[in-house]
Amino acid sequence: MQSTYGLTPDSWEIVLEPDTPAASWSADQVAMAIKAAGERLVASGFTPNFVAPSTTSASTAPGYIDQIAATPGSMQYVKEFSYHRYAGVSQSVLQSIADRAILFGKRTSMLEWIGADQHTLHDDIKFGRISAWQQYTLAFIEAGQGDNGAQYYQIHDQNPANPSISLGTRSKYLRHYFRFVRAGAQRIEAISGNGNFDPVAFINTDGKFVVVVKAQVGGTFRVRNLPNGVYGIKYSTGSTYDVGLADVSLAIGQVLTTTIPASGVMTIYRK
Q1: What is the reported pTM?
Q2: Residue 186: which pLDDT band, with cuts at 50, 70 and 90?
Q3: The domain defined by 186-270 carries CATH number 2.170.150.20
């Protein structure tokens, strides 16, 4: 790949979903494979960055991570602890993965669940401390499966000479995170005294703040402690998409007050 195309992968997965009957890789096999492959890559002049264990069940990921840690020479080649969400998901499981990431200085990622939506992403951010996330694929031919949350864009090819592309219903909400929280952003703490309005907050690499609020109901809320500046506000609900409100100019110490008309997702972002 490098000699032919001039490309070097940013990272590798040693095996996909090792806990399935089809793959059936033990935690020890995964750990030893990472060690062996990492040593060979280093010997060839590369810097290994493995993403693991990418288990189908989130609850089996901690055991695989522990085995990687227990295998001398393996953990040094891992940059990210990954999991899928097809089984074994709970707040405590997500936190146990996040705890191991903190302990070993790694990132975390949720890399597959067909049907994942904004509620999924929000929990993975808050409890799993993820740095990467995806449903399944970017775009896919509908093939009679409907809007099942496997892809952000559906390709409709009933007329092959004139196919069309549509945005998935879940994507309209997910866009509020993806569009405004850019690569390299740092998450910061955000808390709410009202469980109907659940925030996550970030500082992008340009120093600009972003707050994404998952609203269970329509209503008015206030955001405190934003730096001064001009903020854009956008929201999507079940009946609206990407609605922009008037920009708000905040002075130092001023509180931002805004309203979402129904349950949905709102993003407040520094311009």
Answers
A1: 0.95
A2: very high
A3: no
